[in-house]
Amino acid sequence: MALLALLRRWFFARKPEAGFVLTDFPATLLQAKVFDEWLETRGEALCAVLAGPGAPAALVEHYGTLGLLRETVVPVHP
Question: What would you measure as the largest C-alpha separation in the chain, in angstroms?
Fold first, then answer.
């Protein structure tokens, strides 16, 4: 929860037009859904998500369903 609080402070303090790249966040489906809410609150959206080795299948599925997953090296199992 400390990580979410820290990232929330950063996210809402940054300029809306400032781009960003996050590494290893979100790491869980819960974090992804919270992050989705933050984006919606600010009227922003992600343009792409890259999943690296070891990315949780739930995150790959979540962002794949949203049409944001651009690349994955993680096998997706139904």
Answer: 38
